[in-house]
What we know:
heterotetramer, A: alpha/beta, ten-stranded mixed beta sheet, three-stranded mixed beta sheet, C: alpha/beta, three-stranded antiparallel beta sheet
Amino acid sequence: MSAGWSSLEMAAAAAGDLVDGTYVNLGIGLPTLVTRALPSDREVVLHSENGILGAGPPPEAGDEDWDLIDAGKQPISLVPGGSYFSHADSFAMIRGGHLDVAILGAYQVSAAGDVANWHPGAGIPAVGGAMDLAVGARSVWVLMWHNDQDGRPKVLAECTLPVTGRGVVDRLYTDLGVFGFAGGSLVCRRLAPGVDRATVQDRTGTGIVFDDKEGQQ
Amino acid sequence: MSAGWSSLEMAAAAAGDLVDGTYVNLGIGLPTLVTRALPSDREVVLHSENGILGAGPPPEAGDEDWDLIDAGKQPISLVPGGSYFSHADSFAMIRGGHLDVAILGAYQVSAAGDVANWHPGAGIPAVGGAMDLAVGARSVWVLMWHNDQDGRPKVLAECTLPVTGRGVVDRLYTDLGVFGFAGGSLVCRRLAPGVDRATVQDRTGTGIVFDDKEGQQ
Amino acid sequence: MNKVATDIPSAVADVGDGASILVGGFGGAGAPTALLEELAGRDLHDLTVIANNAGTGTTGLAALLASGAASRIICSYPRMRGSEIFEKLYSEGSIELELCPQGTLSERIRAAGAGIAGFYTRVAADTDLAAGRETRVIDGRLHVLETPLAADFALIRADTADRWGNLTYRKAARNFGPTMAMAGRVTVAETDRIVPLGDIDPELVVTPGIFVQRVVEVPS
Amino acid sequence: MNKVATDIPSAVADVGDGASILVGGFGGAGAPTALLEELAGRDLHDLTVIANNAGTGTTGLAALLASGAASRIICSYPRMRGSEIFEKLYSEGSIELELCPQGTLSERIRAAGAGIAGFYTRVAADTDLAAGRETRVIDGRLHVLETPLAADFALIRADTADRWGNLTYRKAARNFGPTMAMAGRVTVAETDRIVPLGDIDPELVVTPGIFVQRVVEVPS
């Protein structure tokens, strides 16, 4: 598993694709790393489901304000131009198609762009805003490790865990590369450094169409 | 038509029935007179459909603020404790049953408590917030003249004009008295000074059950 | 990110024939008069206007209607003192009217902005305004199914803006502004002033910039 | 009119067995901790709690659940770091869980407050969370019918109140407060401070007093 991106490099790949003026919601877990990788040459406005636009980096230790937390209940800050609003208004933004991008973590993604990220299969599930984001954001990106801790593929022909949304994922960022979805198939757009086509296919549970000119150069 | 209440006396009869802490919406036309008749010993909070709670009396001539108007587009003021909010929130208050009382003007009221006040029967209709108020307020009161300009009854067995809401009117204040509705019948609760039972029945287009102990004393 | 339009014409440059337009305001309060008069000065046709009123006097929405730009209006209260321009167009058959209860109008607009595909309300049930409409009995009471009301553009007036499109309003000029801002595919706000980013207290922002595509300064 | 309760016990004196309670807060921010702990100290049973989370640690909502007062919880995100009390009750079968997507939860609460009898949303359509539910295809897409979620009480935390019940909030502690305030038949707000009537700028009021029945000062 030495080849491919680190978690921060995966996040940087996604962050680099966010253009100036994008409104983005970052799911809890891996996607929060995107905040650390945002290029400084553009303004990307971060939405937090608990009623914040303009979420900023965590405060210094000791300066935490527990009335200013992100979706993962961690202390954050507010950037100039930010605002506060109610949950109903926050999810009106999400459901109403006002967010340009939602970057979700996931357990599984299917070739059809289904995403499973709310029910681990056993124990108590917790859906939070995942289903709202999955159908509401204009573009849904998933940021996750390509394989689980036991090396099993998380990108599959069909999700085996309960799905969050069907046919909703537009892009997938993993440690092995960047993927899209077309005609019911997974499409590899870019390979991470040191990863070849055979490796990524071998570690994926569905057939891949390769369209990774950039990565192969 | 010398017997009975003046318009301001009708409004005073309604105003006197508003207890401390009541949230009230006043329709345009006659009901706006209620503002002039509110007893000073209680706090009644006036709601204006265009996003105001705590509507106050008109400002002095020359002090009008055209961003602070009532439902009839007339300049008003805001009392201490008042607030501004959006139309969506304003009608959430109305539709959601948060207003204690709506006092509407009307063309016609029926024995079943139907009210007709949006469509004059010819020409261009204009519904405004009338239908929202008719079904949304916890208690709907109508304030109107007992007869039209040609002396015809406006309180009828059935409305002949298009209705605003059915079975919604709880109380009716006219120049001849105060009425309720029970078992599909109009009930006279109080007669205006100088008005007797025969007169009010004669000027009404439906049978009246008299329960006007107070008025007869 | 800079949503500030340099002038009024460029703020609404892409409004074309056949567009649907949400127009803010309750009477004159909150009406985007400058944007409306800019449109009135063009040779526009077949607009659908969604507004509470149908214009009064000869300015603002009345001017737009007088220009012949609108073929259809959806509103709650078209007939009022001073609405002669609308009344003339209506009596001539030059404009189609869809009357909608005011709270249903604002809720349909909110539904469009909030991604709600339909809702049930008791308002207008069993009245002529709901004739022929789909109904449903819920908890023993008749309800009407209402549908969302989005538009190509929302034109509103606000008090203060910044370059991210955050807005505050003044008193009851707020009215339809926050709700319509959510439902325009392109929302344009004319505002009394535009201040530097960060100058609006985040607790005071009424319309977060995510709902606004353009702002233009039009001092009152 | 004076909605100020003299103390915490009297602010929730009428909460009884079997009551349904909307509980504000997202994690700890906006949680009405003092009101919840007052209820936890009583011998209450069979409450239905509607909240985003299911409590963490041993205070606030977790304390109420630990007291055995709740037999049912409707929430979006019960399992998180520190939710051991809920997890234990759930695994014992002492509490029933209805999981609801967060935005659907807030919209169902708003619907109750806004007099909307039902609405259609794409959220959760064709997922296990909508199994067996009424659906409808609108514009070619599957939608789920969602119903309003009112409660006997809404308990929330706000920043500043006045005796009419007008409320402001602090930063992201706003979250569910304004929406739940609309949907409680009795809404009780614990607030950092209570100021004289007229001291809150009318442009800054987030929850107008019409939605609030009682306020009680609980400095943080």
